[in-house]
Write a structure and sequence with these properties.
alpha+beta, about 450 residues, six-stranded mixed β-sheet, seven-stranded mixed β-sheet
Length: about 450
């Protein structure tokens, strides 16, 4: 009999870091909101075997996966490793993606419940996967959505692997599929090799609140898939939202996740009552993330103070009632004539403002390089090197050094390399939004 674990609920805390002091007439208030979830463990299933977590693995089986043959073999082995990582009681399915989406296991529009038998059956089915056909990722996502909707699940997650461009459906069709799936399940996306489109893969992960990365060598797929599945198995609460309430007269400039990656959530706001809006954050396990909240308050005189915003973590009520608050923090504004107090930049705000600029500079620099604008590329990538060095983002600095020769990191003086391996350029672009946490 499968050994089901009892679901547990993480505890959330919210910490606000800001300089609340403004000069007379000052309006812009910035705060870093750190959300930490602890003690959640993993979701499991009830005694009847009904899993509260579900995962669908979408494997690219298009014809290009046979060139070289190590890609298809690596995909089969990686998916088998991910299946082995499934906890007992987790609902799961495997989908083969080409210009259509086909169920590999268990079939008949349903999910299997993980145990020793179903894991063995799934791995046997994987051995029969072959490569042929085209690529239409939107159809894969829609099938994953149908499968995940076929069971009563708390956590709904997808893992998607592709090796090529989405050439057998229009960009509009993929966008429509992403819009249809957004908020219904989260999805991690991986590109294997170097023949796929970075913006497609990162766009899928962004829309579905997952992670994106490159696995240039198919030999690395199994380790990557195992790690991804392990992360998915650690999620304990789904559909968590960052709720921002603001008083009359306060305008929201932006809401961004800034760690562990930069993700602009401003345009994803949904109304949540008078002067309140929810920003999706996806599923949570034991982890910590940072958000940059920027608001514009009405002008005020010295000595006045106000609540600029109230930030809350909101999760669905398992019983079907109103969403339940998990924790909250306050963003304040205080007007002062003390110049030192009003001009001091909070270290957390400064750090993440730099990390967001770093991500933008890398993307702009790579775009300029591709278009043949060498001066523009040199300037932007030089600025990226400078920002990476200043913030201690050693991983990004190392990736940049494979695209440019660094003359002076502090000054941001660089030279474009004459030859750059395609995998190195794609890795830098894919990981450009990864940030380093501020040291407190």
């Amino acid at each position: 009999m499968a050994n089901f674990s009892k679901p547990t609920v993480p505890r959330f805390s919210v910490d606000v870091y800001q300089n609340e002091f403004l000069p007379e007439g000052g309006r812009d208030v910035n705060a870093i909101v750190t959300v930490t979830s602890t003690g959640g463990g993993t979701v499991g299933a009830d005694a009847g075997g009904h899993g509260s977590a579900g995962v669908v693995i979408m494997v690219d089986c298009s014809g290009s996966m046979d060139y070289p043959a190590t890609k298809m073999r690596g995909a089969r082995e990686a998916t088998a490793a991910a299946v082995d990582t499934l906890r007992d009681g987790t609902s799961f399915a495997v989908v083969a993606g080409t210009h259509v989406a086909k169920e590999v296991y268990p079939g008949n529009g349903r999910l299997a419940v993980a145990d020793a038998r179903t894991r063995a059956e799934a791995k046997e089915a994987l051995r029969r996967l072959t490569a042929s056909g085209g690529t239409a990722i939107g159809t894969w996502l829609r099938l994953a959505d149908r499968l995940l909707s076929s069971a009563d699940l708390t956590i709904r997650h997808g893992i998607l692997l592709t090796d090529g461009r989405n050439e057998h459906e229009s960009p509009e069709a993929l966008r429509a599929a992403l819009d249809a799936c957004a908020g219904r399940f989260t999805c991690d996306a991986r590109g294997v090799g170097t023949d796929w489109e970075v913006k497609e893969v990162t766009g899928i992960a962004s829309a579905l609140l997952g992670t994106a990365d490159i696995v240039a060598d198919p030999a690395g797929l199994a380790a990557d898939f195992t790690a991804m599945m392990g992360q998915a198995m650690g999620k304990g609460v789904a559909d968590v939202a960052l709720r921002l309430w603001t008083p009359v007269g306060v305008e929201i400039a932006f809401v961004k996740q800034v760690a562990p990656t930069v993700e602009d959530l401003t345009g994803r706001r949904t109304a949540a009552g008078p002067r309140a809006g929810d920003y999706p954050t996806g599923s949570w396990g034991d982890e910590s993330r940072d958000y940059h909240v920027s608001v514009r308050v009405p002008r005020a005189a010295v000595g006045q103070e106000m609540l600029a915003a109230r930030v809350s973590l909101i999760a669905p009520d398992p019983a079907g009632g109103d969403p339940r608050p998990l924790s909250q923090g306050l963003v304040r504004a205080v007007w002062t004539d003390d110049l030192a107090m009003s001009t001091s930049i909070n270290p957390q705000v400064a750090h993440y403002t730099g990390q967001a600029e770093l991500a933008d500079a890398i993307q702009a620099g790579l775009d300029a390089r591709k278009s043949g604008d060498h001066d523009g590329a040199t300037a932007k990538l030089g600025r990226a090197v400078q920002l990476a060095a200043a913030s201690g983002n050693a991983d990004t600095a190392k990736l940049l050094s494979k695209v440019v020769d660094v003359v002076d990191a502090v000054a941001g003086t660089v030279r474009l390399k004459a030859k750059v391996a395609e995998a190195d350029e794609m890795t830098l672009e894919t990981r450009s939004t990864k940030t380093v946490r501020v040291k407190r």
